[in-house]
Every structure is written in C-alpha cells, then in structure tokens.
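Dear colleagues,

As part of the handover before I leave the project, I'm documenting each prediction I ran so the next person doesn't have to rerun anything. This entry is a single chain, and its sequence is reproduced below.
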Amino acid sequence: MLERETGALQETAFEAGQAVFQQGERLETAVLLMSGAVAVRLSSEDGKEIIIRELGPGDMIGEVELITGEPTLCEAVALARTRVLRIRRTLFHHLLDDPEFSRKLLVRVCGQVREIMAFAETMSLHTLETRLARLLMRLSDRDGRDVGDGILIDRPISQSVIGQMINASRPKINLQMRRWHCAEFIRVQGCHITILDPDALNALSRPLR
C-alpha cells in the first residue's frame, strides 16, 4: 500500500552529523530510510551519549511516537549522507487501516523490542570484554568483508563511537583492543578493524541462546 502513496510522501536528505529528529521532539512524521545510515541514541545533560541502534535502508523510525502521541525518548542522527521519506501523521494512520501494512509494522516493532532487550541485557549484565566482543561480531555479520586472513569490518569506526555503542570509556576500549591485537584476535589500523580469530571473539561474546 505504501508504494501507491509515494506521491504524497516528502523526500529529505541529511548530511552526516545532522539530526533527523531531536530527543524530546513531538513528531509529525515517521521516517523511512531509503539510503545511508542513522544512529538512534540517548544523550544525558552532561553530554554523555549511548547509541542504542543503528538503522539502514528499509528501516523506519518515529512510527511508535505517531501511534502513541508521546515525544521521542531518543535522538536520531545521520551517520552518512542519508535519504529518507517522511510519512505524515495523517497518511501514516491511513496506512494503519491496511492489514498487510499493519502486520509488517507489528513484526518490525517486535524486532525492535527484541533488539532493545538484547541491548539492555548486554549493557547491564556483561563485562566490557563481552560487550566489545558482541559488538565486533555483530558488525562483522553486518558489514564484514573477507580479506583473506580475516574479516574486515568494512566501515570506519572510531573508538569514541564504539564507546557510545557499548557504554564504555575510550581508554578502556583502547586497552582491550590492544590486548586482542597482541593476541592476534583482531588487527587495528586506524579506524578500521579486521577480525582475525572470529572463533575466539565468538567465545568471548557468550552469544544469546
């Protein structure tokens, strides 16, 4: 049904670092990502930031706020040049009347709930070593590319961003990654990471059953 409504949708582009929406904002549109990437994150008054989820093409954000009418709990920031389709509130509620759209939306929201529960479990119950191993394995699954002697995470990612993704300080992340580099579990070259021993990291990640 959404394909039939594209004439009523507004396309918008964001550059890396631009806010798609702010924390505490009351939304009038949901946002469907067409290209690029967006980080959904929480920010504290003292400037601390935690990245809860990263979204890519085909993902939607803002739908829960349009359904509940509540302000956003997080902010969404473009990680690269990102194209989106904005779905106005009136159109979104019209789409909810379509059973197929509602079913797909429910499946998507349930998937988000599982992701957030896994994030909360990881942050609250596991050590930095486990959190970092889980993150690297997840990035390897999503962005990995075989380079012969390992799996390159084919995107630059700084230790500061890693810290935002696993709620840890940069010095502690640096120390752990240096240990793994020396043990030849990973290879670190600037902002690029290659996983040399995925079995070792997978064992450290204590994957969820």
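The chain has two domains: 2-124, 127-205. The chain has a mean pLDDT of 90.

All the best with the project,
I.
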